[in-house]
Structures are given as C-alpha cells and as structure tokens.
Design goal:
The structure is a homodimer. By secondary structure, chain A is an alpha/beta fold. In chain A, about 45% of the residues lie in helices and about 20% in strands. A five-stranded parallel sheet of chain A has the order 2-7-1-8-9, sandwiched between helices. A four-stranded mixed sheet of chain A has the order 4-3-6-5. In chain A, helix 1 crosses helix 7 (about 170-185). Chains A, B: Pfam families: Guanylate_kin.
C-alpha cells in the first residue's frame, strides 16, 4: 500500500483570492495535487462543467449525503449547499496522492475536527484596506453588501490561529511558491515518514538486543 | 524589535554526513542561517581556526559555563567537552536571524527540553548498510571501532521520533534542498507569524464589536 497522501486544506477570508491562488497552483507544471471537486445544490452556470467545477446535485441528494456521513464538510450559503464528498477524498489519499481542498473558513474548521493531521493553510490579505479594495473591485455589489462581506472577513481572519500556517497573498506567484514549499516540507514530518524507516528501526532494535 | 529567528537543530547518527550537508548548506548562495560555533576542550588542530571551527577553551572554563547555565547543550566525548554557548544563540535569534546548530543526537534532545519551539531535523541514512559503508569508508578505524559506532548509530536512529522532521541523506544536494524547504515553510507557521497580523486582528476585533 502506498504511503497515504496529505490532505491540504486551503482557506482564508472571502475576497482574499483563494480561488486565484489555487488556480495558479494547479496551472503550474510541478504541482502534484489532486483537486477535490466540491458538490453544490446551486444551479449550474453556462460556463461550468459538472464534475470539474462542481458536482451539481439536488437538495434531496445533498441532505441524504449529510445524514449518511458522506460529506467531509458542508455549508449553506445564500440558500444553497456547498460541500466536500468524503469518498473521493479518502480514495485519493489512499492512492498516496495529496488532496487539495480550497474551502471557506467554516468548512475548514469542520475538516479539522475530522482530519486533525491535515495541513491547514490560511491565506491572508496583506491588510484590511487591501481586502476592502479587492471586495469593492468586483464593482458589481452595493456598499451594504461590501460592508457585510468585510464584517464576515474580519470574523474569519480571527480564526487564523486555528490553522497550521499563514501565507500572505501579497502577490499570487509568491503565495503559490509558499504553499508549495509548505506541502513539500510537510512530507518530511517525522510522524508522516517514520513508517518508511520502520524496517531500519526494527533491525536496529533487534541487533542491539 | 525584529521577529525572533528560528533555532534549527540539525542532527542524526554518527557517520550520516551531518557535517557535509551542513557545509553544503552554508556554501550555497541563498542560505540565511547563522551557524552556531560550538565550544570544545579538545586540542586545536593545525587547520582549525578558533571562533570559526570551534571556540577552544579549557576544561575549567567549560565546567564553569555548565555550572552557571551558559551552555545550551553539551556532551563529553572521548574525554573532551563539546557544547553550544547559549549567549551567542540568544543574541542571534533576538536579531531576527535563524541559528543553525549541527549537533549530536543527545545534545539535540537537551536543546529540545530547553527550546521546544526549535525546528528539529533528523538526517537519516538511506539504510544501515549504507551507513556501515560510510563508517568503514574512512578507512582509518578497526572493525571493533566501526562496530561500536554502528551500535551507537542504531541507538541514535531509534530517537528519530523525537524530532519534527526526518530527511534522508541519499544525495547531499537533495538533502540540502529538503532542509532549506523545511526552514522556509517553518517561517509560515501560524504560531510564529500571527504577531505580524496582530494589528489587523486587533482592528478586526474592535470594528466588529
């Protein structure tokens, strides 16, 4: 059986640019992650591909999956469910591949309860002014909506301490490089690799008896 | 005051090649470590420079430093003391620089008791046959001496689990790259960097009251 892969949980406040950084990681040539496709009950948009952008499903099916413990995490947002199907994640980890989850802060904390040895990375804005600019920059939302998002983002930033790592998104390429380094380094953590050396350790223990 | 540097404790069994990997790290152009020069009571060799290879001192002075708590770690080996003066390490960390200690396994465990938030990296041989070859390769020692070193190395390998990371020394350049990645990633650990974001978090807490 191959060594189990790492579950990488990549999160951060609304507007920080999680999706952009994640896309850049997956576009880069040497990434070795499997992207965990989320499931949602919201309507499929014309440019979206089922099974690539999301798994699109019904409320009934989603709620059934919640009840039967088939969701690693989920949240309801603006009347729709979003979540991570557990089966795909487990199968991929068992194949020795790292799974990359890009999810909201609340979902990440649900995952932490279930998979405490995941690698939890928080993407943070350089400062709140920059975050407000990014949230306003979309240009499509009213001041009230932006203020509401800022309030939510502030609450989310306070949860940074629950994560293992914090990476600042000052520049996408730099943030990408940081995330990759963190994952590479995590592969050398003793509790993850000690089984590789178990044979050597067993021999060592026997021989010195 | 600058953010405090990281204390990197690099260790591994006798013969694994700690010194070679450490030298390669310090020869590489982008390293950002300060090397902690050890203190010893053994005689200075003709090619060694005091204050560069070691701080050479007397047994009396060394024992006085142990008594007064001025050694971060020390060991006696073949009748001589070897250890790490605490003052230099603390001053360098306070300047925001990372300090790199290359020490024996027993010394590393002493440091772990005193500085639990250090980064403890264990350099391991690919397997014990390879280690024996390296220990024999020096060509200057009897079989008895080699067997004794192997027995000691086996005991040391069993202590791998006390470390944070394990890096295999299959090829020096690869081992160097792994160690550097680990240190870079450690700089993003939340408990180390959260103070950077404290201002943002304080503002966040105040504003949402």
């Amino acid at each position: 059986m191959p060594e189990r892969g790492l579950l990488i949980v990549f999160s951060g406040p609304s507007g920080v640019g999680k999706g952009t950084v994640r896309a850049a990681i997956f576009e880069s040539s040497q990434h070795q992650f499997e992207y965990s496709v989320s499931m949602t009950t919201r309507a499929q948009r014309p440019d979206e591909v089922d099974g690539k952008d999301y798994f699109f499903t019904t409320r009934e099916d989603f709620e059934e999956k919640i009840k039967s413990g088939q969701m690693l995490e989920y949240a309801e947002y603006v009347g729709n469910y979003y979540g991570t199907p557990l089966e795909y994640v487990n199968q991929t980890l068992d194949q020795g591949k790292d799974v990359f989850l890009e999810i909201e802060v609340q979902g990440a904390l649900q995952v932490k309860e279930k998979v405490p040895d995941g690698v939890f990375i928080f993407l943070t804005p350089p400062d709140l002014d920059e975050l407000r600019e990014r949230l306003s920059g979309r240009g499509t939302d009213s001041l009230d909506v932006i203020n509401e998002r800022m309030a939510k983002a502030r609450e989310e930033i306070k949860l940074m301490s629950e994560y293992d790592y914090a990476v600042v998104n000052d520049e996408v390429s730099l943030a990408v490089a940081r995330v990759k380094k963190i994952v590479e380094a995590e592969h050398f953590r003793v509790d993850r690799v000690i089984s590789r050396y178990q044979t050597m350790l067993d021999v060592a223990t026997q021989t010195v008896k």
